[in-house]
Design brief:
This protein is α+β, with helices and mostly antiparallel strands. It has one domain. Helices cover 29% and strands 31% of the residues. It contains 1 helix and 3 strands; from the N terminus they run E-E-E-H. Strand 2 and strand 3 form a beta hairpin. The longest helix is centred in the last third of the chain and has 13 residues. The protein is flat.
């Protein structure tokens, strides 16, 4: 997994498939995502 930051966007892609699709998050969504993962509940977003 690769994570990049571009201004107010967080970009995530599969490092084994760099030409494949990427996920994008705004700052608030990224913060909620990280909080959910840290809390152990990534499926509750």
């Amino acid at each position: 997994m690769e994570i990049g930051f571009a201004r107010a966007t967080v970009l995530i892609r599969d490092s084994k498939n760099p030409d494949g699709p990427a996920l994008t998050f705004g700052p608030a969504a990224w913060k909620r995502f990280l909080g959910a993962v840290k809390a152990g509940f990534p499926d509750t977003m």
